[in-house]
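Rotation project, supervised by the postdoc (A.L.). Task for the rotation student: set up a whole-complex structure prediction and record inputs and outputs verbatim in this book. Inputs entered:
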Amino acid sequence: MSIVLVQVIVGGLLLGAVYALFSSGLTLVWGMMNVVNFAHGDFVMLGMYVAYVVYTLLGGGPLLGAPLATLVLATLGIVVYFGLIRDVMKGPMLAQILGTFGLALLLRYSVFWWFGANFLSLPGDLVGGTFDVFGIRIEASRLLAGIVALLVTFGLHLLLTRTTLGSRMLAVAEDSTAAQLMGIRPDSMQAIAWAIAAGATGLAGALIATFFYVVPTVGETLGIVAFVTVSLGGFGSVPGALIAGLLIGVIESLSGYLIGAVYKDMVVYALFLGFLWFRPQGLMGKT
Amino acid sequence: MRRTFWLAIAIVLVVAYPWVFSTPFQQRLGALVLLYAIAASAWNIIGGYAGQVSVGHVVFFGCGAYAAMGAYTHFALSPLVGLPAGLVASVAIAAVIGVPTLRLSGHYFSMATIAVAELARLIVTNTDYLGAAVGLSGPTVPRNVFDLSFISALPYYYLFFAVLAVTLAITWWMTNSRMGFYLRAIRDSERAARSLGAPASRTKLYAYMLSAGLTSVAGALYAMMFGFVDPDSGLGLLISVKILIMAALGGAGLLFGPLVGAAILVPLEEISNSLLGGKGAGLTFVVYGAIIVLIARFQPGGILALINRLWAKRKTKQESKQGAADAS
Amino acid sequence: MRLSKLVGPLAAAAIAMGLASGAMAQQKTVKIGAVFPLSGNAASAGVHAKAAIEVALDIINNAHPEFGNFPLAKNAGLAGLGGAKVEVVFADNQGSPATGQNQALRLITEEKVVALTGAYQSGITLTASAIAEKYGIPFVNGESVASNLTERGFKWFFRTTPIATDFAQVYYDFFTEMKASGAKTDNIAVVHDTTEYGVSVANTLAATFKEKGHPIAQDVAYTTNATDVQSQVLQLKDKKPDVVIMISYTSDAILFAKTMQALDYKPPMLLADDSGYSDPSFIKAAGKISQGVFNRSSWSVGPAGSPTAIIAKLYKEKSGDEMDDTAARQMQAFFVLADAIDRAGSTEPAKIQAALKATDLKPEQLMIGYKGVKFDDKGQNILASGLIIQLQDGENYVAVFPKANAEKPPVMPYKGW
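Outputs recorded:
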């Protein structure tokens, strides 16, 4: 295999890890809690702006920006849950789309109002530039995002499968009335799920900001990728989203290089649709 | 009796609106409300009554719009000729994508429709015959009345009103037929509907095709009015979402729900844009988004559901009063 | 059924609109409508256009003797209309051709503007100008490059900006001169997005260069607002073209610059086609890693004390950003429109239209580097032109071609970071 092809695949894997990273939060609320969040991309965007503000005001890199973004977004997640989602969930599924779409516009244009429409960016060497491994170029900022993606996925998976909190959250997602009868408070569990999901999304945003541009409408670009990643992985499967993310990244990269960049998104959507034909429950979803 | 009375009043009000609010912009606003009401009502058949949340309906909208503009661009025909072509194409496309995707449950169906819509947008963006990224235009100067290119919004207004009336009549007829009965059963529980012998797959597919055909009519009318379609305005996901939230906000699965939704959202968007958009600070969407959030928060079932509930409450109150009077 | 319930709010809103427009009507002002993308993906360009027009308004409406003989600057207001002030009503097209047309209609019928300018995206300029044509209101566009805009047989549409055929020629001349001075320019790659802008410029370049016996060797198309451009950069790295021409909006331009650095790819010569590479946000975000990039522009700041230098300063004060080519072209279009109204001495659309047709501005009367402004039958400015600038220090562009306008000689090869 030529060295360029290796570079393409490595680049695809790193890209895919980033996709997985900003999809992990959506897996939790959409896949597990069964709530569609159209504002997900805008949560990523807010995480990016937190990182940007931390850099411009305090001069801090992702070491400071990422935890802060996690904290800010986790708080926002709780506020959004109690302020909107809790009531919206009483209505039909459409109300979730309605509410979170409104929320997306509200968040996006509040940021627009405050920061303006200009494209912003963090300096490229904030996370140690780029290094060379046997002729393969790897950006430190993307590698960091990739490693964090693995850690977040692993952490979420452990949380849901190995802890009491996790099983309680799953119980609420499965049947909240039954869970309540067992002494679990659905409200707290849902709120915790939203805090974790939004926090992970904020973390993702802060890390992506180290190698991507920052603009109020960036969530639109990223949100749709997260939707495809989560559904390809299978609703309710955290490892599924990771595998799906990596898969999409590599497919995009390879098809972009071999066929042409114009076709890479088409290839992804077509493969996704074809895949659903054979496996209607996604990669690792429950039937 | 009472129902007919209110319906008559509503029709009179809709007919009279452009004469009361007679500036060109107000008339156009009215026409846009009716146009989006057609699209949202069409979506309502599959999304509201059948409970299959399609987020890719823009495919059919775009199909109608492109057919109308294509008829002019490629064949120098009236865009009106493209309308039936777009309708047939939409129904065919719905059949092709409906068979595999309608098997999918819930979120997977929604996601699959999104993927189809994005795929369609990307393909059209790279297809020269369909104008690629530049898009297709209608006649710049109307050659005759069949080009449907008017300065005044008035002809559009009544045309859209007529189409909306037909759309709603079809919907009404459908809900009262066996198909409507099946659809409601499927929405409540597909498994239960199947076990009771309802032909679930076939019914959903028919509803999807009907919905697609009517959506394409809205698309064709849109393109005729604006004289232009490009991949973003004809096939962008935002259009799908707009149609969907209009139905949801008004009341999905209710005959007049989408109309109520359109009558709230279209003026809200245009007027907030007119008053705030020129400042260039994004305030339009802060207001617009906040209002949608508030409605979803306090009225998750849609505005019309609230009105119906209040109505029912008043009725029961009256009845109980009546009962009390009788008793005494 | 309960339709009556919705007529209430609709009526209230409609009345509010009527009142708002009534109250705004004033005597002795000339109202011009401006439709720009003030929200959505292209909002950054729209907000800059708004600032540029506000600076132009300041220059027109107040006495600015420091501008010397620059048209409309010396006295306050429009002399041709007894010193009448110009007022601009801005509207947001939200990046939608439908909204753009609705707002153009509102400006014409509710705000009673006498002329329109805008609307940035070619598709929206198309629908907005169509309604202006129906109402017989002049529409002056300063930035949309799609060629079909002036091919519609419109009588009320005028465009001041150079279009793809104009700058394809400039590029060709530039390459010819660079080749004469020893640079290799044989193997050219064009990287472009698949928006109407990217495709129409790429196609025109391909056609022009082919005609001159110098076909484009590599065409790399991508979908705009990409999440990743590694594969495109690697394709370029494989083929090693002598020249890479980049036709990209700001978002993708930033991503390309960052990715080229990450993958350590530097073409010997990188030429950008305006747009993203002119955006001050691009220079802030990626200027330091794009040193030596050539770019097309019709704008240059010029020597201290010149009208352009004063405009640059006023613009910076207004917007907080450096003036860029797109904003400058929009500003020039607005000046052309105001000048026509001034010469018409009337706010009657037909007289403004006649004045626009008679427009014959000389280079010294412009704030941008065109050879003049003069419209052909289709409404296209036949004297529009551009120059090549270079980001030599990673912070400020300097003019390098043609020689007559050059501030500094071009520096080769592309330095990057």
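Student's summary: Chain A touches chain C through 38 residues (CB under 8 Å).
Supervisor addendum: Strands of chain A lie at 130-133, 136-139.
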